[in-house]
Inverse folding.
């Protein structure tokens, strides 16, 4: 992506949104399907893969590490893996663009293989903390031989020749840390254990089991203890990627705040570790009806009918954060249109996403005349049932900040402009045309 060229866009107050849409494939599962497929022996077929820039960087990375990765149709991909521990040394730097997930998961997978690789990314990714992956990687036997200031990219990692099984307690509830340790542990003999104090998304565990690994998950207080038997032969299994709830969140909130709207959002993954936003919006009074709940390739999915609703402020407990961590920007937009105060607690991790999302959300809301405060790690939004808009929002290379504020502008009195929509292509390449198809005015 050419970072020098920004693409501004504005959203204007729109008529009722109508129609049926499907969000693109889940980003978390798309990265994992490519990586686990690359570690299996034989051909993995993936359908409805998210073809966003983040995932395409992961496809390039596992290709550089020796897997054969081919696009065989729209969203249809074939991966011929190298087997657990079988990555070869890449000739080039692995560039993950904007993607923390791709970078951290591949770092984990590489930590268990006896090869050296350099990891890099764009200006946003270069600011994000990587020490959280290097710490467990070093316990497993990998070595970081070159690291930029403060545990940042670019990083050169030498994978372990004899990876050790570890028992690792994640210091923050993070599916990325958990997944990196499990992917590294694949190559270690014996049992690798990850303990998390709060349950985070479990797609890695599910996918490894789907490919024949022996994975046991037990409750551990409010969290979980995950045990993986090392050195499995991963057997390819087809992966049908469900629609991403974190992307579906944008048309859903748009339909809630644009008066008179009624839309259907189809095929949304309803894994309980990802549905915190829907629970919260329902507590706020959102009319979200579940239609046709079904099981689809190892994950539950549903179609949702969403109707414009009068929302009220609520308190969102910190314990819910892992199940909706990427949805706070758009929840903050919904809260601006609610009556009363919404308090979102325990958002420390939002400071280390594609941007400092706590600051970016507060700044964007203020620019649009919404009263907002950050107290410690909590975000407090004063809703008055409507929002003035008229602001220009700085997106800080963050796709979700761009999409959240474009959604906002569909219901504000005056348009909301964002400085750059180019990063939307990292997770939701068809966002603008999809929203226009529902009746959204974006130009
Ligand atoms: C992800 C985990 C979350 C989330 C990210 C995707 C994943 O990050 O914010 O967008 O696929 O594992 P953390 O695990 O760091 O909280």
């Amino acid at each position: 992506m050419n970072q020098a060229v920004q693409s501004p866009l504005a959203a204007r107050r729109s008529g009722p949104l109508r129609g049926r849409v499907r969000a693109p494939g889940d980003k978390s599962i798309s990265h994992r399907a490519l990586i686990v497929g690359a570690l299996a022996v034989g051909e993995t077929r993936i359908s409805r893969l998210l073809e966003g820039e983040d995932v395409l960087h992961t496809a390039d990375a596992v290709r550089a590490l020796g897997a054969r990765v081919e696009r065989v149709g729209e969203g249809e991909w074939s991966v011929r893996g190298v087997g657990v521990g079988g990555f070869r040394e890449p000739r080039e730097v692995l560039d993950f663009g904007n993607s923390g997930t791709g970078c951290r998961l591949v770092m984990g997978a590489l930590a268990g293989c006896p090869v050296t690789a350099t990891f890099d990314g764009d200006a946003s990714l270069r600011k994000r903390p990587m020490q959280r992956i290097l710490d467990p990687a070093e316990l497993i036997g990998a070595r970081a031989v070159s690291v930029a200031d403060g545990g940042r990219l670019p990083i050169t990692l030498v994978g372990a020749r004899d990876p050790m099984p570890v028992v690792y307690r994640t210091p923050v509830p993070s599916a990325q840390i958990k997944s990196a340790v499990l992917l590294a542990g694949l190559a270690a003999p014996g049992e690798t254990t990850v303990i998390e104090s709060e349950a985070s998304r479990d797609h890695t565990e599910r996918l490894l089991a789907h490919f024949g690994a022996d994975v046991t998950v037990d409750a551990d207080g409010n969290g979980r203890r995950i045990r993986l038997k090392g050195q499995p032969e991963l057997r390819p299994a087809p992966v049908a990627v469900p629609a991403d709830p974190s992307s579906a969140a944008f048309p859903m909130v748009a339909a809630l705040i644009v008066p008179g709207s009624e839309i259907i959002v189809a095929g949304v993954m309803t894994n309980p570790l990802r549905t915190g936003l829907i629970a919260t919006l329902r507590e706020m009074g959102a009319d979200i009806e579940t239609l046709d709940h079904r099981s689809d390739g190892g994950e539950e999915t549903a179609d949702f009918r969403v109707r414009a609703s009068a929302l009220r402020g609520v308190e969102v407990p910190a314990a819910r954060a892992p199940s909706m961590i990427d949805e706070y920007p758009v929840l903050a937009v919904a809260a601006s249109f609610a009556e009363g105060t919404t308090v979102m607690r325990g958002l420390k991790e939002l400071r280390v996403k594609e941007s400092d999302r706590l600051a970016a959300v507060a700044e964007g809301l203020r620019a649009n005349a919404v009263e907002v405060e950050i107290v410690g790690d909590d975000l407090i939004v004063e809703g008055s049932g409507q929002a003035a808009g008229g602001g220009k929002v700085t997106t800080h290379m963050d796709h979700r900040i761009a999409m959240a504020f474009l959604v906002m502008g569909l219901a504000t009195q005056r348009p909301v402009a964002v400085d750059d929509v180019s990063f939307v292509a990292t997770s939701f390449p068809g966002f603008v045309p999809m929203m226009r198809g529902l009746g959204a005015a974006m130009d």
Q: What stands out?
A: The longest strand covers residues 287-296. The pocket of shikimate-3-phosphate is lined by residues 28, 101, 174-176, 179, 200-201, 325-326, 349 (CB under 6 Å). Residues 272 and 323 are 8 Å apart (CA to CA). DSSP finds twelve helices and 24 strands in the chain.
